[in-house]
Design goal:
It is built from 19 helices and no strands. By secondary structure, it is mostly helical. The chain has one domain. Helix 5 runs antiparallel to helix 6. The radius of gyration is 21 Å and the shape is globular. The model has no long low-confidence stretch (mean pLDDT 87).
Length: 445
């Protein structure tokens, strides 16, 4: 098939996915599977090959990230219900003082969004954002912007959330590299994004008359549980998996090999240890039955996350199975080995999926599956190709993204206000992440 024909079928499959989700109100995972079938059959794959590829794409992705995601959800839920998440956020803001409170709030969102999904992180921190805004005598968009930019950045770029966790599996590189590079790039992107966003607010970017509804839908905050964990204890479940994962990466850098280190740095082992630590610190506040209830609730919410993530893997696998990457490589010719071209192609594809489908997870995972074959011939570390796809996946979130409505409704924003907050925040993250990727591509070239 020609590159034009493949792109036509890609657009048709995206349209089918949107139709099933928006018009037929089917679950996004079902829509992705139907779209995968349309893509495979339209591009000449047989019925059997199409369905086998859908199954393999789902299974291969879940093999690499299914258990760690499940453990991460339980860890985050225990941290949330025990009060540990609030303790971390409130302590950081209090210690930072008035001048740095906005950045401290952002850093709290950064830390919490590593194991806790964006929506939950935002819900946890909105009451604190309102309190900080009152104390600083600043309009609410300042504190909401800090949370939105930092939480979205960590959720997108730092494992063990699905997108960055999948990156290491899809591109076959050390997860510790994704943790280290993702965290550094994310910190750079979120800090710079917040700084510029605050300056825009200072210069009249926000118009309360048109950007706010005046109704903030935040439930009354419950008091912290008795015997809630301390700040130091609450950090242990967050930091322990990160330390374990990067042990092997640091050891390899210095030529040190150890079976024990390899075992501890395995993503399943690391997340299991972090989850056990979360159980231990939550036990005094929740009790054994409370911990069990919290973990079970986490597992319940985890199911749809795994289903949608796996279906995104299926869609990406079918697109790859059509020979899409080979066709693109032929179309680009010798340019397909130029790092800058590869980086921009991965970013562009992810932006396309992000704008069309709304899901950053699907956008990132699909584009990474497509770009994975380029890593073998491109003289740049695959972590930067992954970052470009992840940047595209967070780039332009709008009305077809659930995160957009969480921020808009809970903050008392109009749709225009949501675009000025959630969407602009994602654009900043994408741009500043791409600055790092493009710089790396130019150095490699």
């Amino acid at each position: 098939m020609t590159i034009t024909q493949v792109f036509i079928w890609l657009f048709i499959s995206i349209a089918v996915i949107l139709f099933t989700i928006i018009v037929l109100k089917l679950n996004p995972a079902i829509g992705l599977i139907i779209g995968s079938m349309v893509m495979g059959l339209g591009c000449g794959m047989s019925l059997t090959d199409t369905m086998d590829t859908i199954g393999k794409g789902f299974g291969n992705l879940m093999t690499g990230i299914g258990i760690p995601i499940g453990l991460g959800v339980i860890l985050g839920k225990l941290l949330e219900d025990s009060g540990g998440a609030r303790v971390i956020a409130e302590t950081l803001v209090k210690k930072a003082g008035p001048k740095m409170a906005l950045y401290a709030l952002g850093f709290a969102a950064f830390l919490l969004a590593i194991p806790v999904f964006f929506d939950i992180t935002f819900i946890i921190l909105v009451p604190l954002a309102i309190e900080v805004a009152k104390n600083m005598k600043k309009p609410l968009p300042y504190t909401i912007g800090a949370i939105t930019i930092s939480a979205a950045g960590a959720h997108t770029l730092v494992p063990p959330t699905p997108n960055p966790l999948a990156a290491a599996s899809i591109f076959h590189f050390d997860l510790g590299i994704m943790v280290l590079v993702g965290a550094i790039v994310c910190f750079f992107a979120t800090t710079l994004g917040e700084f510029i966003y605050f300056k825009m607010l200072d210069h009249g970017f926000w118009n309360a008359a048109t950007d706010e509804t005046g109704a903030i839908s935040v439930a009354e905050e419950e008091p912290l549980p008795e015997h809630a964990p301390s700040f130091g204890a609450s950090l242990i479940p967050l930091l322990l998996p990160v330390v374990c994962i990067i042990m092997s990466t640091v050891g390899n850098a210095f030529g040190y090999k150890s079976t024990l280190v390899d075992f501890l740095s395995n993503k399943i082992t690391a997340m299991l240890l972090g989850t056990i630590a979360a159980y231990i610190i939550a036990l005094p506040a929740l009790g054994a039955k409370g911990c069990e209830k919290s973990a079970n609730h986490g597992v319940d919410t985890c199911g749809i996350v795994l289903f949608v993530t796996g279906a995104g893997g299926s869609f990406g696998a079918v697109i790859s199975g059509t020979g899409f990457a080979d066709i693109v490589q032929k179309g680009l010719g010798s340019m397909s080995t130029v790092p800058l071209v590869v980086i921009l192609t991965g970013f562009g594809l992810a932006v396309l999926f992000r704008v069309a489908l709304g899901s950053g997870t699907v956008a990132s995972i699909t584009s990474m599956n497509i770009m994975a074959p380029f890593a073998a011939t491109c003289p740049i570390h695959p972590v930067f190709i992954a970052l470009a796809c992840l940047a595209g996946g967070i780039s332009i979130g709008h009305v077809n993204d659930s995160g957009f409505w969480v921020v808009t409704n809970m903050s008392g924003y109009t749709v225009k206000g949501g675009l000025k907050s959630y969407t602009i925040g994602g654009v900043f993250l994408a741009v500043f992440t791409m600055i790092v990727c493009v710089t790396a591509a130019l150095i490699a070239h």
